[in-house]
Amino acid sequence: MTEIGHEVLAAMTEDIVLRIHKEAGSPVAGRHRGGGVKNRQGFKRLVEDIRKCGSREGDFRDLIAMIFEDIDREPQPFSECNHRTALLLGRFISKQFGYNLKFSGPEGRKIRAVWDNLTRAQFREWIDGHLVSFEGD
After folding, report:
1. Contact (Cβ atoms closer than 8 angstroms) between residue 98 and residue 91
2. What is the pLDDT of residue 112?
3. Fewest beta carbons within 10 Å, which of 47, 48, 105, 134?
4. How many CB atoms lie within 10 A of CB 98?
5. DSSP secondary-structure letter at 117?
């Protein structure tokens, strides 16, 4: 599963990230109050960082922590739904490696309440505690 996961990351496109962003604003997840990308340079850097992680076969958990830290710092890449996009992007990435990133309900509200004050290391610790293997490991 790992090799396939890195291949998916290395082939990440802006369109895929935008579709994940759109899903973050769906009626189930919530609604966007604004639209799309507001920081084109930050958005392009986000997609490139994902590709680089795939090419280097980096640890997907470190990548998710980087996304969590970077996607919601100023200037944010999207007009709205930056937190939700980061969470869904983290779930998408973890799925490529055989894991589900659990953040629904109270856990999602809990992380959202402290998000702005977390370091990358703290995000990584949270991620490690919320990954569940699809294979039951």
Report:
1. no
2. 83
3. 105
4. 16
5. G
What pTM, to 2 d.p., does this model score?
0.88
Judge contact between 112 and 55, C-beta under 8 A. no
CATH number at residue 68: 1.20.120.1870
Q: CA–CA separation, 34 vs 37, rounded Å?
A: 9
Strands 99-101 and 131-133, sheet pairing: antiparallel
The range of the structural domain enclosing residue 13 comes to 2-133
Instruction: Give the separation between CA 5 and CA 100, rounded to whole angstroms.
Output: 13
Domain total for the chain?
1
Burial of 137 (0-12, 13-18, 19+ CB in 10 A): exposed
* Residue in the structure block whose two tokens are 């949270």: 126
